[in-house]
Amino acid sequence: MTFLKTMTTTLSAAALLASTAGSALAVDLQFFFPVAVGGKAADTIQALTDEYAAAHPDVKIDAVYAGSYQDTITKTLTAAKGGTPPQLSVILSVDMFTLIEEDAIIPFDGLAKTDEDKAWLTSFYPAFMDNSMTGGKTYGIPFQRSTPVLYWNKEAFKEAGLDPNTPPATWEEMVEFGKKLTKTDSNGNVTQWGVRIPSSGFPYWLFQGLTTQNDVILANDAGNKTNFDDPKVAEALQFLVDLSVKHKVMQPGIVEWGSTPKAFFEGQAAMIWTTTGNLTNVRDNAPFDFGVAMLPANKRRGAPTGGGNFYIFKDSTDEQKAASFDFIKWITAPEQSAKWTIATGYVAPRADTWETPAMKDYVAGFPQALVARDQLEYAVAELATYQNQRITTIFNDALEAAITGTKTPADALKEAQAQAEAILKDYR
Predict the structure, then answer these.
(1) What SS3 class is residue 387?
(2) CB-hemisphere CA count at 13 Å for 415?
(3) Of 38, 121, 245, 336, whose Cβ has the fewest other Cβ atoms within 10 Å?
(4) For the chain, what are the domain ranges?
(5) Whole-prediction pTM value?
(6) Fold agreement (5-146+306-373, 148-304+387-427)
(7) Between residues 9 and 226, which one has the greater pLDDT?
């Protein structure tokens, strides 16, 4: 990611005078946000922040692009420990337990004073709230939310003798199609892989699509127990390894997250798994007709949710908390949420957003945008635990060991479970 970039909304002298009339001073808010995908996300965040500030001259918002998700929580917690946290931030939903343990955030429930506020708190898709609530309290508000989906190159399907309008519905079909789609040159070098499932960046996340489809959950709702050594997890990991080693339909070794859309655009992979947050990026850059589908099923259909939530930080004044709450309500309202979804491809996290004229027009011309929303019916919570970064690092290392062939899937996962258990037992 690029270096830290600050985007500040500045009020005109006239607006400032108006806001300070009657001795009322403007409320200053600092807002950290990440961008983990290509496309127009950063520009859209700034535009929406500017729009709110223009309509609320009593609030000044310093919107700070903080880098990747990892960068954002690191900078946020560093600022919090130094006594200068932002007032609000978009941070991964799975970092909720970490933020709670650090005593950095407050629940939204105490800020929801009116019936309207309380109705707003219950207006988000339940699948997204699984990573937003704990202990009966709401700590995060879904915003930059997603599920992984399958993208396929319809032209490559035609060339391979496959129906361009029919994606693989099962693991077996993905392998079958992948063999037909994998192309080699005269020297035997692969020029197009059948499928590409990234195993860097967020390896546990896309892998969780496979575990969900294999009907196994990686962690409990309380965030204090993992299930890494379940035989069904090992089966899913063996399947991922086999895509390269046995079936030879996927590039061997670690497959990069960041370069996956580009590999798709350039014809290096005929099918890819990546976030719906790349939808606008793919739409704008793919030089061919493409399709979007739910992830293929095995024992069941399924995918994890993902992405970022809004959080409000404890070390803020009451006025700042109230202003942050109002801004979050505004930016997640249907009209603003529609602008965000159309610009980025992230899933609008409320059903009423999809009923706005803008969204209806959007999906009428681009029905692929409905896939991730419809997949929420089968979605599960993203892997989230206390000490989340340590736990996911342990799990990601196990995945890497299996993918690179240094350990068997079963051995790698058994070791990961033992390490996770040593950490999480203190939270039960």
Answers:
(1) coil
(2) 14
(3) 245
(4) 5-146+306-373, 148-304+387-427
(5) 0.87
(6) yes
(7) 226
Q: Is the pLDDT of residue 105 over 50?
A: yes
Neighbours of 68 (CB within 10 A): 15
Q: How far apart are CA 411 and CA 202, in angstroms?
A: 21
Cα–Cα distance list, 164 to 151, 156, 159 (Å): 12, 8, 9
DSSP letter for each residue of 169-207 = -BHHHHHHHHHHH-EE-TTS-EEEEEEE---SSSHHHHH
- Return the residue matching tokens 């919090």: 80
According to CATH, what is the number of the domain 148-304+387-427?
A: 3.40.190.10
Q: Pick from 258, 280, 292: which is nearest to 40 by CA?
A: 280
Short-list 250, 399, 339, 299, CA closest to 41: 339
Task: State the Cα–Cα distance between residues 422 and 52, nearest whole angstrom.
Answer: 46
Residues in the chain: 428
**Closest C-alpha among 346, 381, 303, 304 to residue 97:** 381
Amino acid at 43: D
pLDDT at 68 over 90: no
Q: What is the pLDDT of residues 236-275, one digit of tens each?
A: 999 999 999 999 999 999 999 999 999 999 999 999 999 9
Tell me what percent of the residues of the chain surpass a pLDDT of 90: 86
Q: And the tokens for 383?
A: 């892997």
Mean pLDDT of the region 139-158:
97
Domain 5-146+306-373 - what CATH class?
Answer: alpha beta
Average pLDDT over the chain reads 92
Partners of 307 in beta bridges: 145
Contact indicator for 126, 117 with CB cutoff of 8 Å: no
- The reported pLDDT for the residue numbered 305 is 97
Tokens 């950490």 locate to 423
